[in-house]
Design brief:
The protein is an alpha+beta fold. It contains seven helices and eight strands. Helix content is 39%, strand content 14%.
């Protein structure tokens, strides 16, 4: 037996411990159970918890964490002509220190959910995208909605910041 095979033999019993049952009633190995979505492992980095199912283009089921769903709702609630900061969106969604997660959600789900990604800026009122077409497009979209840029392309957050009203866990538009 080769050295590599002996190492695998020593690991194999631990890796094949019985996990949750599959549909046929058989016990799944822990590794297979994690890959199939058991034990709160979504692979998204949002942590364990109640998950909502969502279809993907490949026909597989993918889960959306509650925080991700709330971020999507908050971003969709931003009206034309207003902006919110990444940190503000995260705080409204229930995680005040989750600004980087908001960036990730915007990057990966904007097109799929039709999010108004251009209405989210950094805490200084700047467009966070560095040079390039994305920066130009975000500025253009905001200007078309009536948002004005000051010196150094800063947005006056006192004038253009949107502050939604919170009804429990639900975001409602402020009239």
């Amino acid at each position: 037996m080769l050295y590599k095979e002996r190492i695998l033999e020593g690991i194999r019993p631990q890796a094949e411990r019985a996990g949750p049952d599959d549909q046929s009633g058989h016990r799944l190995p822990i590794v297979a159970a994690r890959r199939s979505g058991y034990e709160g492992d979504s692979g998204e980095g949002d942590g364990p918890g109640v998950r909502l199912e969502q279809d993907t283009e490949k026909g597989r089921r993918r889960t959306v964490q509650p925080f991700t769903k709330r971020v999507i709702e908050v971003i969709k609630s931003i009206p034309e002509g207003y902006v919110m900061t990444y940190g503000q969106v995260a705080a409204c969604a229930g995680s005040p220190r989750g600004a980087r997660q908001v960036v990730r959600i915007l990057h990966s789900l904007s097109e799929k959910h039709g999010l108004p990604w251009h209405r989210v800026v950094n805490s200084k009122g700047e467009i966070a995208i560095q040079e390039g077409e994305g920066r130009y497009m975000q500025k253009r979209y905001l200007e078309n909605e009536g948002v004005e840029f000051g010196l150094n392309d800063l947005i006056d957050l006192d004038e253009y910041r949107y502050v939604p009203e919170m009804d429990g866990d639900v975001v409602s538009e402020k009239k």
